[in-house]
Amino acid sequence: QVQLVESGGGLVQAGGSLRLSCAASGRTFSRYSIGWFRQAPGKDREFVASIAKSDGSSFYGDAVRGRFTFSTDNAKNTVYLQMNRLRPEDTGVYYCAAGLFIGWGALSRPTSYNYWGQGTQVTVSS
Questions:
Q1: Cα–Cα dist 34/59, whole Å
Q2: Which helix (H) or strand (E) holds 60?
Q3: CB neighbours (10 Å) of residue 125?
Q4: Is 57 exposed, middle or buried (0-12, 13-18, 19+ CB in 10 A)?
Q5: Which 3 state secondary structure label does DSSP give 17?
Q6: How many other C-beta atoms lie within 10 A of the C-beta of residue 13?
Q7: How many CB atoms sit inside 10 A of residue 108's CB?
Q8: Nearest Cα to 49, choosing from 101, 114, 8, 94?
Q9: What is the pLDDT along the chain (126 residues), one digit of tens a residue?
Q10: In b/e form, how buried is each residue of 15-50, taking b as 16+ CB within 10 angstroms?
Q11: Which residues pair with 6 in a beta bridge?
């Protein structure tokens, strides 16, 4: 079992930055792949970022690549999403998720993850 708690959301102007945190419980946390997703009102959940357990490489959704950075602190069982140059279209609820044995090609699929946090709201004003 893994429990995930996101924090760090808020209201920011376009062009600003936020850093989201996702704190995980469980001694086996390091075995899990972690992903960030977001969901805007009336839209499907969208992949944001993840790190492959196989080689530690990170990859990003097309909409955020070059602006967002995923990082981990295994000692704290915490992952982070640094979001820079935010845009109004980045507005939504941001979720972190955890799952085991997720292949590289499946990291962007919400159905690959078994555990989800409650989400944190990010609002970017124009």
A1: 12
A2: strand 58-60
A3: 11
A4: exposed
A5: coil
A6: 10
A7: 18
A8: 94
A9: 889 999 999 999 999 999 999 999 976 777 889 999 999 999 999 999 998 877 778 899 999 999 999 999 988 999 999 999 999 999 999 999 999 888 888 999 999 999 999 999 999 999
A10: eeebebbbbbeeeebeebbbbbbbeeeeeebbbbbb
A11: 22
Task: Measure CA 71 to chain center.
Answer: 10
Residue 16 in tokens = 């600003």
How far, in Å, CA of 101 to CA of 18, rounded?
Answer: 30
**Angle at the Cα of 65 from the Cα atoms of 92 and 51, rounded to 5 degrees:** 90
C-alpha–C-alpha distance, residues 43 and 80, integer Å: 24
DSSP 43: S
